[in-house]
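Give me the fold.
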Amino acid sequence: MKVYLDNAATTPLAPEVYEVMAPLLKEEFGNPSSTHFFGRQAKAIIETSRRTVAKLIHAQPSEIVFTSGGTEADNMAINCAVLDLGVERIITSAIEHHAVIHTAEHIASLRSIELELVQFDELGHVDLLHLRQLLEKSPKKTLVSLMHGNNEIGNLLPLEKVSALCREFGAYFHSDTVQTMGHYAFNLQELDIDFLTCAAHKFHGPKGVGFLYLNKKIKMHPLIHGGSQERGLRGGTENLYGIAGLAKALEIANEDIDGHQQHVQGLKSYMIEQLRSKFDTIDFHGDIRPEKSLYTVVNVCFPSTPKAAMLLFTLDLKGVACSGGSACSSGSNKGSHVLEGIQADTSRPNVRFSFSRYTTKEEIDFAVKTVVEVFESNLVA
């Protein structure tokens, strides 16, 4: 049996999404920028997809800019804030995705931008009092960039509270919602935010496509220069097939978003319960309360073992695919910057299990059984 529990890294393509994309790959080859019939057909698919996405998150079609994924969208937002909006200070956190942290550090060094890191409470949540203090202490034009759902420990950010703080102090607000788009409902008529980012492959869409929500009040120049695609905001021929797949995936995700959450949260809670019953010494990083945490992610701190580094490899050999953190950093020799940022115990083996709406209880049982067998057989002891 092979069990895939690394859905925070990527999710399998939904069959319905494939059914939408496959005919387009064969039949719709026109360049969306061409004015003849074939180009107009392709352009119509993109604009229909844009309207679908906008409707699902209660935005305007003109506020959706299609990108190659979440990383590009994060780069666009942060660079736009500095280069086009005159931001002189960025407030972020040490446990953001590297698409945010590295981009903020790079632009800060190039443009002499002040970079501030907000503190956390004992469970790894952003300390809102400290955020207020950071906003209060300087009159400089500021961007706050904080992710909605942490991709490693699962903690959720109270978007409405952070938005209110940003508006109180006249700061711009960007949130990386790559882990939460398609898993939670968004109403951008009610949530006052400047930038929001998405990657389709996190909710059973194709890889290589995402979008940036750009509040209509924001005026920006392109990060990628070239043609006049995406209303002049992103040069390059659009990923027609990916965009259509993204729209379909988001549509499916929103059809029964409460049902998906109930199913997956049940599996997460069940796995936590089973692991607690099997191990005397086990902890969970972040806040695992359902209302405070991503229902798709649980980060487990297992008992100490001399061969902690072998746990993921051994689980993989035995049919359980999981991870030690962000897949984007898997080539690095460093440990998790997120666990380091919340001062977690990294001397013990830490494993991130992440779920999707296709995950089953039988797969959870197999994964727990396999983990127990690995420890009992001293394969990592």
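Confidence is low (pLDDT under 50) at residues 329-333.
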